[in-house]
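Researcher: Re-running this chain for the archive, since the previous output was lost when a drive failed. Same request as before.
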Amino acid sequence: MNATDIWRLVHPAIAVFYGFPLIGIATYFALQTRQRRLATAHQAKSKIPPVVGREHVKVGRWLAASVVGIALLGMAHPIIKTLINRNAIAEDPFQVMFIGAMFVFTIATLIFLYRAQKPLWRAVLATLASMGMVILGSQDGIFRRTDEWYISHYYYGIAAAILMIISVAILPEIYQSKAWRRSHIALNTIALLLFVGMGITGPRDLLEIPLSWQEPVVYQCDFANKTCE
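Model: Regenerated structure tokens:
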């Protein structure tokens, strides 16, 4: 493995040792928070401390930022690799500047989303951050598996990242309305299922994407008929 191949492992490595543990912690706190809320609603005494709700929010915000960050990191490797292979800095500098600006734009809108207070601004910033993710994901070089989108690690990741962005945007509302709280639960249940799917599809894609020195030979194979000459 050369430096390019090692860089490819940064995305899954961070997801395994940082992202997925946060998913487990956030899920645990979510269940604890719900159990305490149900006990309070039935005027029963709960052994779960009141601080669990605040801890769930804190970990959930960390999780949302980490999911978006890991997704951006995962897209950065193939995008930059493709730009280098095409000598885009010399032949198409506008594309390089545009992609760089989109990374900065997406990160900036997410940071502002965490600081925004008014619902309108949170909606606008969440929309812009989601658009940034989609635009970056549409760039050449990313292994999307569009013909099998329903088992695509890329589409699972983009969908999960957008759901995390939405969860951050609607966070203040869940304390004001039961409908928003139910929406929050539904969105994050879907996200949890996507995370499980990503845990399966990620290793599969790592097996299918060849090492850099193997690419010239592997990409000459007939993938439809699963043969190589």
